[in-house]
Each structure stands twice: as C-alpha cells, then as structure tokens.
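Need tokens for this chain, all 732 residues.
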Amino acid sequence: MSGRGRRRGLFSGTPVRPWPDAAVHHAVRWLLLLSLAGGLVLLYPPDPGVFIGRHELGTVADRDIIAVSGFDVPKDAEQLRQERSAAASSVIPTFNFDGSARAAALESLAGFFMRLDSAATAAGVAGIASVLSAAGIEASPEQTEVLVDRSRATALYESATEAIGRLLDQGVMAPGAASEVTTDSIRVLRSGQEMLVPRTSVLSGREFYEAALAGREEGSETDLLRLILARYLVASLAPDTARNARERAVARDSVAVTAGRVLQGEAIVRANDQVGPAELQKLDAYRNHLRANGISVDESNLGAAFGALILNAVMLSIFGVLLFFFRPDIYPEFRDLVALAVIAVIYFSGAFFVAGAAAFPGAALPTVFVTVVLAVMWDGRLALLTVLVLSALTAAQEPFASVDTFLVALAGGAAAALAVRGYRRLSQIWRIIAITFGAYALALAAVSLKGAEFEFATTLAWALAGTVIWAILGIGFLPVFEWLTGITTDQTLAGLADPNRPLIKRLAAEAPGTWAHTIQVANLAESGADDIGANPTLCRAGAYYHDVGKMVHPEFFIENQSGDNPHDALDPEASAAIVRGHVVEGVRMARREKVPAVLIDFISEHHGDQTIGFFLQQAVDKAEKEGREPPDPAKFRYPGPRPRTRETAILMLADSVESAARALKDPTPRRISRLIDEIFATKLERKQLNRAGLTLRDLALLKRRFRRILGGIHHRRIDYPGTRHLTAKSTP
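Here are the structure tokens for all 732 residues:
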C-alpha cells in the first residue's frame, strides 16, 4: 500500500465508545459480509429446484418441460421381464447327440421280446402278462392275446426295431426337452463338432411315435406298439442344461434396462402436446433422476440454500477475522472493506461467465485481477490471503465444485501475487502475465497427469487469454479503487513526482532555492525510507510538495535570498506568520491542484507543531526590552499535526537536517554527525515522532544514511589555482 488521506466517516476509524460506536462499527462489517454470502447463494444457487408439475395420460401439457441434465429412461418391470424372457427364448439351445442310444434301445427291445417268447412257451397268457407287468407296460387282455400269437409278436418286434433303427439316428429329443425349444433351429454337438440344424430335422417323442406308426391302422395292436416303443425308446439328443442356462442368463442380462436417454436441453414434453405413455415414462424418470441427485422437484430447497449461506459466511468470516487481528490498517477503514467487497463481486461475476464458457473454468478465473489490484493497492500478503480464501470459496460453489479447480486457481493466483511484488512500471505487466501463465500451465499439466479429464490445449489457451485479459483489466481498474479507498499507489505517486507537474514546475521557476533544497530533501528521504523498509516513492513525492507554500513569499525564505533579508524590516510576529503560512498556503495550493491527501499530509506534518524558535526568541527579547508581557507562543507555532506515518516523520528529519547542514560553517564529517544527532534528539525530546511509528533501529539507520549523503555533498573541495581568487575568503 502506498498511502491514503485521513478522512474519517461514521463507519471508519477506531470506535471510541463500546455502545453504540463499536456496535455500529462491527455491525456494518457483518452486514457487508452477509450481503456477499447471500449474493453468492443467488449467483450460484446450490439447488435451484425444478418444477415439473403433475401430468396424466391423455392430458395436454401447458408448457415446455426441458431437461436441465441428461438422464436415462428406465423400462417398467413388466416390459423388462417380457424382453428378458424373449431374449432368453431366442437363445438357440445346444443338444448332445448320444451315438450309443440306437444300439442300447435295440438291445433292450430284443431282450424284452425274448422274455415274452420264453414266457409264452412256459405259461401262455399268464406268462406274457407277467412280463408286461414287470416291464411297466399296462396292456389290455386283447393286447396280451396279440403277443400270444408268435407271428403277430414277431411282426411287432420287426416294426419296433425298424422304427428305432430308422428314426433314432435322425435325432430324438429327450422327453420334455422339445417343449423348451422356442427357436427354429438347434445346435447339435456330435462327435466333437457343432452343427446348426433346423428344428424340423429332429424329432420330439410325440413326433417319433407319429413317424414310427405312420401308415398303420388304428387298433389294439398299434396301441401296443406305441406302448412298447415308449418303454424302450432311448433319446439320442440330450440338452446341455448347464450351457443352455448360462447362455440364456447372458441373453437376459444383455437386455438394456433403459428405454432410451434424454439429453440435457432436450424437450421432454412440448407445450400443447398430448401426454402419452412414453412422455409419462420420461417424466417419471426425470423426476426420479433429479431427486437422486439431491435436486428438489416441484418445491423450493430452502435447506440447501441456507446451508450454502452458512458455508459462504463462515469462509468470509475467517477472512474478516484475519483482517481484524493481522491487518489493523485495513479492518477499521470501511472504504477499504467496500473495495474488497467490490473486488469479490467483480471476481465472482467474472467467474459466472467463465463457468458457462470454459470446459475447465479454473484456468480462466479472475484470480489475476484480484492479485494485481490487491498487491498494487496494498501488498502481496493480502493478495495471497485473499486468493486463498476466494479459491476455497469458489470450489464450494456448484459450477466449480472440484479440488482440481481449487488447486489450479490457487496456483495461478499465488504466482500472480508474488509476481506483482515490486511492480513499478506498466511494462512489467507482461512479466506478471508470463509468470502467472507459467504457473497455470504447470498446475494444469499436473492435474491432467493425475487423471483430470479436459482438453489440455484448449484449457491452456483459456488460461493464457484469461491471464492477459484479467491482468490488463486489473491495471485499468486501479484508478477506480484508488478513488474508492483514498489510497494512492506508487504508480500514481511516480506520476505526481514528475518535475513537469504544474505545481512542481512553478516551484522550480518561482523559488529556485527552495527547489534545490527540495531535491536534496527528496534524496535524503527516499534513501532513508529504502533503508528502513518504508515507502521510498511516497517519500520522494511528498518531499517534492512539502514546501510548495513558499511560492507565495519566496523572498522571505533564506534559500531564495541573494541580498538583504526582508525579515529585518518586520516584526517577529509578522515574520513568524509568513513562515508559518507556507504550511497553510501549501495545503491550500495542493488542494486546489487536486493533489492526493496522502501528499498533503507531508505539507501539514513536515514541521509538526514545533515552535518557530528564531522569531519566538526575537519576540521574547523585544517584549522584555519594552517591558511588555511575553508573546503568545501559539502565534509562533506551526499548525501541525505531528507526523503520523513513518514517511512524514522521515521527511521532517530530512528537511531539518538538510536545512541545518546548509547553514553549517565548516561542514566536516564530525560536525555533520553531531548536527544530525542533535536534530534527532531534539525531535524526540519535543515528542514530534511519538505518533510516527519509528523504532530506535529505524532512527539509527536514518542517521547513518543521512551522514553518508550529507558527507558526500558537504565535503572539502580542491582549491584549484585558476579559481582561487573566486573561492578565497574575502578580507575586510
């Protein structure tokens, strides 16, 4: 920070009374904080809520319903069940062909008829009935009589073996397997090879019987043949149960559970359109999607908004507390706090537009704007602290809710805060831009390597564009914030210290001796300020203006006199009034020229409220001689006030030391050193430095610097022979 004038309002300064002064003082600051927190909730609502309304099948929508985010439309349970069932049914089943089935069936059949033949020979009808019962064939008496007849029994045997031999190699499915086949073909695994065959090329049990009995007349003999075939038929096609179950499960699982997807910005229902089953399904899915993401539907979400308000207020309160304890130069100044609030408003307003344009907004946030303004107006520490708080606060808002955004914004802002340090010339802005962009590029590369998904080249371009634009805007807004806070930056001070400024140019022309004195005082003050860590630019600018009031009566000041002293013809009180008046006149002239208040302080404070000792003593001596009352010391005192900053105190010391050194008869280094020590001691004794904040170490460094400069100016010169007649002392 360069400096400011001291204007106090209702809300600025240190409150005197706890009530109501202190209460109002802090209350307005809390009100400002809550206003910012509430503004963030309005700008970045955590959950804006979505109004869908109630719709019924066949009604007409009264307005467009547009999806605020993309979502899937799930199928209803019955539809999903049917589609999964259809998918499972479409799986081609696999059957294993049993090549031994034909031989096994023929062997069993031959054994059965051999037992029948033996039983018929031994016991007749009773024996045959016993064999049939043992085989599980429930034959009628008429059918049993058929088997008693050997020729008829042989004909049945031949018909059965012919059917099995002819049809079993074609493929006969196991009982019940055929009912599960829902496809037009099946897959047959035979001798290690798979083949896809039409379903019609293989037989179910029923189809086998129909083929075996084709052409035979209906009757008990045909029915008996069906019973025998049913008992001794061995299926040649067995289903691969495990494989079929596995493939059907895969088919069921492959069925999509969603009926489609609605994209962000897509119309779900259009105004004046009829709401059909598909629209109702989409609306239900949209409602469920919003609620699953914590977005209120058809109602306001006051809880989320209140939570966001509290979070914003807490983070801003941390910043406020840090200002209260560690920046007592800022917290009492309400104009400074308003300026910080305006900077925050500009930052978040810019972030609002960036969020809608950049895919990775952290790279283009206005952090550079904040750091440039704060570092130039105050210092880099405040800029760094503010960027830290703003980055965290940004990451808490809905469009920026990302750790990567926080880290990238903080990296760029911190680099800018450090780069602005020492900013003096406009051309240095490009150095700031280069350093900040480098930090952005490094941070973006790091988060990209960590797995963040964004287009690196595009985001890097956004970072460069944002850095350039926000940095230039920050420099452009500096005059606005100077006006708002009353702070005068070093850049403005450098311009005010230009010797071509009207007031300074007049001083050099109308009071050249005072101007020469001013230059020496400026050199002393600037060097001293640099040594103790004060603001050298402010000291030089203040020195240039501190004696402008002498232009009103330049001949009454010794540095401008070349002959008689006009004070010799004046009363001491009148002389003191003229000398005292150069302070009052200087303030008046500076205000008329719209010189900043921080420089006017140098005019009013460079003599403090000291007495004009020379003329006061003259007045005292004259009063004693004439037998009058002693003069009023107030008429021989500068109007003040005493120096209230280190810079104005440095100028007071430099002004006094330079003036006294000019009057020194024999300015040896030792005498100059004694002179400086005495002047410093006098200022301390008269309490002129009590409010300036200078430490004993500061005073020691100032003494050393002043000795070095004045020793270099007032040293013994060589007495050149060619000019000895001009430099030699005149004799009476």
